[in-house]
Structure formats: structure tokens, C-alpha cells
Amino acid sequence: MHFSHSTEPPSKRRRFFSGAQPQEDDATPHLPPTAPLPSSSPPTAPPCANPSPPDTNPVSTSFDRATFESFVGETVSSDTISTLQEHCGNNVERAINLYLDGTWRALKRKALPAVRKRPSPKPACQGPATSHSMPESRYIGAFGAEGWATRSGGSDLVKHGDVVKIERQKIQPPKTKVQSRLGAAARRNDVIVRFTDRTGREIGRLAKETADWVSILIDQKICKFEGICVYAPDRLRTNDTVYLQLRCSLLRSCFFGRGFQVADNRDAGLFNQGESTEEKDLRLRQVALVRLFQEINLVPTRANSAAATHRREELLQAAEMENKKEKETPVAQSAAQGNPPSSPISDENEDGQELEQDQLDALYKKAQSFDFNTPEADPADTFAMTLRPYQKQSLYWMMAKEKDQRDKGREESMHPLWEEYTWPLKDYDDKDLPQVPNQPTFYINPYSGDLSLEFPRQEQHCLGGILADEMGLGKTIQMLSLIHSHRSDVSVQARQSTSHHSINQLPRLPTLNGASIAVNAPCTTLVVAPMSLLAQWQSEAEKASKEGTLKSMVYYGAEKSADLLTLCCEANAANAPDLIITSYGVVLSEFTQIAAKGGDRASNRGLFSLNFFRVILDEAHNIKNRQAKTSRACYELAAEHRWALTGTPIVNKLEDLFSLVRFLRVEPWNNFSFWRTFITVPFESKDFVRALDVVQTVLEPLVMRRTKDMKTPDGLPLVPLPPKHVEIVDIELSKAERDVYEYVFTRAKRTFNANVEAGTVMKAFTSIFAQILRLRQSCCHPLLVRHLSANADDEEAAAAADAAAGLADDMDLQSLIERFTATTDDAANSNAFGAHVLNQIRDEASNECPICAEEPIIDQTVTGCWHSACKKCLLEYIQYQTDKNELPRCFQCREPINSRDLFEVVRHDDDPDNGRSGEGSRITLQRLGVNNSSSKIVTLIKKLRELRKGHPAMKSVVFSQFTSFLSLIEPALAQASMHFVRLDGSMSQKARAAVLEEFKESKGFTVLLLSLKAGGVGLNLTTAKRVFMMDPWWSFAIEAQAIDRVHRMGQENEVKVYRFIAKDSVEERMLRIQDRKKFIASSLGMMSDEEKKVQRLEDIRELLS
Amino acid sequence: MALPKRIQKETERLMAEPVPGISAIPHEDNLRYFDVEIHGPSSSPYEGGVFKLELFLPDDYPMTPPKIRFLTKIFHPNVDKLGRICLDVLKNNWSPALQIRTILLSIQALLGAPNPDDPLAADVAKSWKEDEKAAIATAKQWTQQYAVPK
């Protein structure tokens, strides 16, 4: 809500200057670099020679009670006034808002904790150090502008060379509250800037385009402008164009006038409007400044890369976009602002749109530029485990963060959001300007519109950070090594002197009169973890520590009765626990208790009564919602060092990160309005680059993140992988397959040769390649090429004939027996006979093969007369007889046998669902040669069966580049009652995610059918331990990539890979080509398309040789 | 060429569990070549005789039957002068499910039950048919003369 008042100058002035009040600036001990000035200012600064009217003077802008009361129309108690004053600084406008919407009552109750947040005593007011050397204003540049006359007159009115004054139009503030809402918009549109002659007579106004931003700079007391008429018509008429040169000087006050309401988080919590008036002014100012610098063509002499990457225009665009958006929806905006902010949770879904996956990836990529040259630190000798090199590096980093050591090699760097400018040496007439000693430069923050004369150092005050290593890299161990390796001085002393008590060690219980201040617990690290991980933390802590070097306790449930205050206080340093492990739930419940007692931290002598040496939030994404009570509770935990552990610092919104930053108390980003202005707003206005760049600058010093995929400079993975074993499985094509293969092969070769002779190979390239493809498919399954191959048609016809004859492809024993005994009507007999045959066949399997004497029979196959032998022997024998033109007869009973009437015995003893029931495992008979027309599928099923027998919970991935082949594998898997899922390129992202989830969560034997193209990249399939590559690809690199989906970080077991290669076929020749790695070169783009074609032709020649 | 597993197994078994009245010992230099001895069945004209045979397993055994022949002279309608044997399982009725052991048992059985209706040695068969007693006597005499170890 906007309030203006007739008796006061525009309120926004005060808003800006009120921030400079010392108590605001000193509210936080660590000053952000964005407001660097007051911290270094000596107290001897002379009074400012500020020409501006007294009400803009920071010191004189006091909270005017009379004005306030006149606005709210009633007398207000001093109590209330002081509460309001405390929360609004001297911003009367805001105070009025607060008062009228009733929020002040809530403020009043929360007043106590608010005070508690600022425990440090406030140093005396200090004036800016550099002010004595900075003149009241300093020239920075000139630019041309157009204006239009508002009166007519002769050349006496204005002519070339005349100096004109540049003034703001007086604002006519609206009178009433109702009007003020509309007035806010109206006033924003009021940008009239007049130019007048020496006497103050208005000559004209600046063109709107210029006035738009000049007015803001004047209103916000950033610049003053002087005009010189460059050209005016001899006889000036109203509406004539007048050309002016505007000379701009920065006002001294702009460098000091404004301070952030640093870390005024309570504000952020309470006022979650879309954008506060402050933020809006800030944005306008930012836009205006950027425009100004553009006009006077002043470029930064130094800027950080992050800031330099996006051009000014983008910055403008973003800010103006917001402006436009606001104008378009003034009603919604004012409605949102008019909302009483008493229910901050309600707008939770309003802020933070979700990040797209690729944006998240980009962000993570930026955040995880881990420098492998980081020095390593060895953990203290009380630490009982061995750290990997990367863990030692993070230990070094964490210790440096806690001790606030800067990297020696890194020179003091400028704050990433700032730019450095040099004061111009010459003026518009090319005359030398008076220079100020030791002040050749000034600094501007184009993101905020802040200006500074001091070098904005990149401060790093947060004595902690975010350890965001991916799951499995040992975050817990790293933190434990830190706990061992960096102890407080008190703790070290206490350890050394446990035997002989020094004076300091005399137990002195802390006094609790100042209940709002937490008592130091200098020896203790507090770990907050999800309840389920408490025990794990404790056992890890024990494992990681040499005996007796680390006292840990779980603070949960019954143990909660402990008096932490006494236990951990400094006086008890020698006996204090080094590690307290508690849950988020405990933190929340204690927080709630304390809040109910008006913020008396010591009231329950628990977690909040102490200022820990270190607090660690495990699985810190638990507090991603900044509005959740648990998050708020965690923010209030007091500790010297603050760490957040999470593998996913950003779950799906940039705001997730804010909550961590807030917990870590990183200035100034822990101020939500600041965050919102520089990250959320640009992000929502689609300026992703800028938002993400800013996020990166926030994250870079704060986050350590390594992923499992990272490699050390030597190319080794961070964590060594278990071994991988690749085996080539030779597939013998069946006769039927071989026939199809030969047919396709001959055709392809004929086509190729014909084209070679005709010299049209290049033209026919595609069709030749298509034939090669057919050839490769025929190695997998004849059906894949059926519409090309007459043979396959024959085969299909044969299958159809069989089906018509009642010979189903496969049958179980019962149906076979029924067929066999159909002629007898004796049902009981047939049943008994069936059972007998069943038992006999099952038992025979353990016998030796009557033909080759193998024991047990390999691929037991029975004849139509129920006699078993190895499949191979039986087929060989039938073949032998056929070759001798004899009628094949059974080797046992000499009954004539038919090669179509052979049945392979499928035992389901590997099938967990069907095994162990009854006296033996179930068997079924499967007709030979019809369904198993693909040797690859037969081999695959055989391998999987063996696997299931040995490892009933094993998961496997089956890759093929032909999705149609996957479709043929599916029924075979179903028949073997193997659980399988499938993922290919035709599926939606959502469906894929569901499949992967199912595969991951499945507990039993599971097969994932995966198309090579869809599954080659990105997927993490480490739950699988076996890989079947059904067909080779031109380049092994592609296959290797697919294999690496399984064999990657997180894989804990040996991985076995089976590559199915049809013997004596094009596939074998492809392997040879792979070995020569020709296709790798071409796939790396090292050859032109034409070269690639030539290369491929040669390969084709080899393939068809 | 490595010896197929089947032949190894058959050999081992013939040595380990010999059939009463039959022995088959492979040559050391050719494991497919066996020296076979069959004792004449009791209450047959060949009782008391020990007949030597040679047995050879061809390359495509067990698709084809073993080649086997009497070395000892024998007066039998189904064995010719050269010692060749007329037995269906050694010819059309061969099946790979049959083994050395079963073949030798069949030969032993053949000694106990000569079948002059399906002769190989036509003259022997003729004498057998015409005067069975005389034929049996001749068989006994031949056995004594050629097959009884001295």
C-alpha cells in the first residue's frame, strides 16, 4: 500500500535515507559488501555538507508521531508507536500500513525475539571515512536529450549555449487512502521533468523517454542534472523540440544515503507481498542507473565475469518487464498488497516456480566445478578411518571455512555483483576536472542500484557451508572428520587438562539472567538428522573415532530429559559431549515450547539454550520450505559454525536454496527481499541466465559438491568401481535363421556389387545401408525382416499350418497327454498315465543322455513317444537318419518320429513362484523350433534362467537397438515367467520415470528391456548387475556408454556383460570394424559427411566380403 | 580327435562293472579298438569256450553301430567264415541308445539261440536245419578245438 501525504515531501526519499540509521546497519555483525561504507568510517567525520532539505537528512528523519497520528486519525499509545517504530525504522508510511491492517499487534508479541536477534551492542554512529574527500557532487558524464517547449517566445527564451535548470515537476499527492491506491500507479507515471531558465521560469519538459529515468534519479537523490541548450528554434513555439545536453553529476549523498535493512528477515516472513514498495523503488533506481550509464557511455573498468556475461540490456529488460507486468495487473497487485500479511503460509505456492530439469542440471553443473587442486588436509589422529583424497580436500575446505581462512593464492576479489568505474578525467568540454585524491574510482551494483566509493570486497562471513556431495560419497564421514579435526580452543584446552584441573576448569554454572542469549557450548557439535538416521549417525561416529576420543549422545525420546545447558556449558567443557544427535522433530518441539514461553531460550535447558560450536543439518532439504515451522526452528538454532548436508540442495525451486542460505545466515542473501529481488524475480521474468548466474555467485563460496560421475585429473573415478567383465557370447544361428540370413546377405551383396559396377554407390547409399540393417536384424530374429524374405514367409506359413493342425506352439504336459490319450476314454487312466509320464520325464533329466552320455541331459528334449535325450543329440540323430534317407525313428522304441513333434522340457525350478510346490518342480513342454526361431532369444532366456537359479533377486538390463526385437523378447520372457519392464524412445518422460522407479524398487528377479538409443545416456541403473547387449552397434563407444548405465558410481557388485554376436555373420565383422575404431573417429565429428560415407562404404565392403 | 565322452564312459563302466562272461579291453594305442572275449553260454553248444572278438567304434559312433567280428573260429549259422555277425541291432535296428555292453550281451544271447532262419553262413545254416544234432555236435567240437583255452 502506498501512502503519501501532503505535508511531507515524497515519502520514498525517507525510505531510502532512513536505512542509513546506524542501528539498522549495525544490526548484524557482518556487514554485507553491498553496504560497506559505515563499517570503516572514522568517528571524526565532519558533518555532511548536504544541501538537500532537512527532511532528507538521515539523522533528522525521525519518526514523526504527529504525522503518523494525523494519518491514522486517532491518538496512539507510545507503546504502540515504539513497537511500530522498531519495525519500520523511520518509515512512516510503512508504520501506517502496519497500524491500519492490524499487523502491529502480531509484531508486538514477537517483539522480544526480534530484539534477541540482534544481540551485539551497537557501536557509536560513525560517519563515512571517505566523505571528506568526496565533493558534494561529482561530474560523471553528459548526454544529449530532447525536450519540448511548453511555451512560445522569441530567441530570448532559450538559445544555443544557454544553461537551463533541470527540475522535477511537483507531485500532487493524492489525499485519501482510497485514492492512494490508484494514486500509487498514477504517481509512478508522473515522470515530468521540466527545464527552466535562470529565473525558474519553465521553458519546457524533457521528452518522456528521457524523463522516465531522469525523474527517478532526481527523486531518489542520486544525481543532479544541468542542461545546456544545444539547439532551439529561433522562434520557439509550444511543442517545438529543443535539443539539450544534460550534464550529470553524482550526488555525494547517493553513496551514503542508502543502507540495506540487512537481514531483516522478520520483515520477509511477515510481508510476503509480490514486491514491496522498497523493492520497487530499488528496481526503478536500478533501471535508471543502468540507463544513465548507458547514455553517458560509461563502461566498467572492472567487472566480475558473472556480471559481465549478461549485457546491461538484459538487466534493463528484466526490470522493465516486471514493471510492465505490474502495470498490466494493477488490481491484482494492489489486492495482493492489500492482503493482511497475517497468514504468510497461504502464499507459499505463490513464490518460486519450479525449475525445469535442464535448468536444474545447468545449475548443478555450475555449482560443482570442483577444483581437484584443492589442498588436502589430514584428519586429526583421533579419527579412526581413512579418508579418500577428495574427502581430505573437502576437509581442508571445511576447516578453512570454519577458521575463515582465505585461500592464500586468491587475491582479494571484488564482490561479484559490483562493477568498478573510473571517474572521468575530462569534462564535456574536454577540460580537466578537479580530481579527488585517492579516489579515482567508484563502484556500482547494477543489480541493486547501489553505489559505493569503497572497494566492495567479496566477504565471506559464513563460518560454515553446504556439503552437497552426491549420495554415497561419504558426507557423514567427512563431517565426522571435521568434528575431530577442528575443535574449539576451549575444547582443546579441556582435553589437555583433564588430568589436572586448572582454575578455568572449576565448574561455574552459567548465569541465566539474560535468558534471551544462548550459553556457549564450545565443545559440542549438534547434528540434526531425520529420526531414522539417528542410530546410524551414532554408530558411524563410534566407528570413525578412536576409543574414548569422542563422546556422543542421542538427544531423543527418553534421553531428552538431560539438562543440556549444564552438560554442555563451558564450565563443564571437560565432560561435555562432543556430539549431540537429535531429530528435526525434537528441534521443532523445543522451538514450539520456547515460543510459547515468549522466547525464553533457557526455559527448558534444551537445544535452544546453547550456542553450539557447530550445528550440522543432515538431509538439509528437510528445511527447503522456508515457511515451514521446522525450518524456522532450525534457523533459530544458535551455533558458531553452521553446516547443511544434502545431496539435493535444490529439490525443484530456487527457493529451496534460500532456506539453506538463511539457515547458514549468509549475508545478504538470507534476506528474503534481497533474494527475491535478485533471484526469484529475474527467474520468474524468464531471465534464467541472470538468476542462475547470481545463484552461482551465491553458491560458489558456499557449496562443496562432488558427483559420483566426477573423475580425478588422472581420469580415475572418485570412488573406484567394482570390476566389470565383458564376455562375447557366440550365437550359433539355427538352420532356419541361417537360411534367412543367407538370403538377405546375397541380396545385399548383389545390390552392392551392382551399384559398384554402375558407379552409383553413393546414390544408392541409403538403400545399401538399409539392406545392411536388414542383414543385422536377421542376425537377431528372422521375423524382423519378414516382409523382405520369402523364406520367413514360408516359415510363418508353416507356423500357421501347425497352429491350424492344433499344434499349439507350446503346451503343457497335460494337454499333450490329453492329445495322446484322446482315443482312450479312460480318464482316470490317462491321468495316472500323465502323472507317470510327467514324473518319468522329470526324473530322466537327471539321467545321462542315452546318446552322448552327458549327465544330466543337456536341454532335455522329448520325442512324441516321451523319450528324452539332449536336444543337440536328438536333432543330430534325426539329421543323420534323414541324410541317409531313412525315416527318423526313436532311438529307444524305434517309433517313427517327426522333427515337429519334439518338445523341449522347460523346468521351472528357477522360478520362485512355481518352485518348491509339491514333490518337485513344475515342468512344461515347449515345441521345438517354432517359437524359438531366434537363437539369440533362446540363449538369452537360457542365460537368464541360469541366472535366476543362482541369484533369485538379480536384476538385468537387456539392450537392443531394435525396439521390434525387444517386442519379440517380451513374450519369451513372459513365457519363462520372468518379471520384466521396458523402456524405449516412444515413451513419455513420465512413463519412463515410472518404469525406472519400478525397476529400482522391484525386489525380485527383474529384467529391463531397454532400447539402446533411449537408454544410452543419463540413466542410473546401478541396481542391475548383468547386462545383455543383444546386438552390436557400429561403435563400441555407444555400447560402452550403455553399459556404463549399470557400471557406474553406486554400483557395488561386479558387473557381467554379455555381448551376443551371431557367429559367422555380419555381426562378427562389425566387431572387427569396431576394433579398428574407425567409427569412433567419425562419430566424434572428425570427418566430413562425405569422408564418413567413403569410410562407411569401405566398411560395407568388408561387411559383405 | 579327443575321445567322445560317451566312449570314455562306456569304457570305464565296462571295466568297473564287467558283465559276467564278457570282457572288453581297449587297445592302449587306439581307444576305439577293443579286444573282446565272450564266454559261451551254459547249456549251449558253445559252453566252455571263450570266443575272442574285435570291436571297433567308428567316428560317427553312436550314430552308426560299432563294427564287431569273431576272431575265434565258430560254427554258428549267424556268423560267417570271416567272423562277421548277422544281428539286427548291428544293422538296421541300431540305435544310438544301444551301447557296447548291450551289443555284446546280444551276441552272447545269439550264441545261446542261433537263428538259422536268418543266416549269414548259408552252409552252416543248412546243416543246422537239416541235422540240428549233428550241427550242435560240430559246434561243440569246434568250440573244443578252437575256443577252449589250452
UniProtKB/TrEMBL annotation, chain A:
Per UniProt, the keywords (alphabetical) are:
ATP-binding, DNA damage, DNA repair, Helicase, Hydrolase, Metal-binding, Nucleotide-binding, Nucleus, Zinc, Zinc-finger
Q: Where do the record's region annotations for Disordered lie?
A: 1-62, 113-136, 322-355
According to the UniProt record, one GO cellular component term is: nucleus
Source organism, top-level taxon: Eukaryota
Location comes to: Nucleus
Polar residues bias spans: 331-346
InterPro entries assigned to the protein according to its UniProt record, in alphabetical order: Helicase_ATP-bd, Helicase_C-like, HIRAN, P-loop_NTPase, SNF2-like_sf, SNF2/RAD54-like_C, SNF2_N, SNF2_RAD54_helicase_TF
What sequence ranges are listed for the domain Helicase C-terminal?
936-1095
Q: Which GO terms describe its molecular function?
A: ATP binding; ATP-dependent activity, acting on DNA; helicase activity; hydrolase activity, acting on acid anhydrides, in phosphorus-containing anhydrides; nucleic acid binding; zinc ion binding
- Residues of the RING-type domain: 849-894
- One of the protein's GO biological processes: DNA repair
Write out the biased-composition intervals (Pro residues).
Answer: 30-56
The record's SMART domains line, in alphabetical order, gives:
DEXDc (SM00487), HELICc (SM00490), HIRAN (SM00910)
The record's comment on protein family reads:
Belongs to the SNF2/RAD54 helicase family.
Protein name per UniProt = SNF2 family N-terminal domain-containing protein
From TrEMBL, chain B:
**Which SMART domains has this protein been placed in?**
UBCc
Reply yes or no: does the keyword tRNA processing apply.
no
Q: Which residues form the UBC core domain?
A: 2-148
Q: Which Pfam families match?
A: UQ_con
State the active site.
Answer: 86
Q: Which keywords are on file for this protein?
A: ATP-binding, Nucleotide-binding, Transferase, Ubl conjugation pathway
Q: Which InterPro entries match?
A: Ub_conjugating_enzyme (IPR050113), UBC (IPR000608), UBQ-conjugating_AS (IPR023313), UBQ-conjugating_enzyme/RWD (IPR016135)
Give the EC class as a word: transferase
What are the EC numbers? 2.3.2.23
Give the superkingdom in one word: Eukaryota
The record, for CDD domains, names:
UBCc_UBE2N
What GO MF annotations does this protein's record show? ATP binding; ubiquitin conjugating enzyme activity
Which family does the entry's similarity section mention? Belongs to the ubiquitin-conjugating enzyme family.
Name listed for the protein in its UniProt record? Ubiquitin-conjugating enzyme E2 2
Please report the organism this UniProt entry assigns to the protein. Cercophora samala
The record lists the lineage as:
Eukaryota, Fungi, Dikarya, Ascomycota, Pezizomycotina
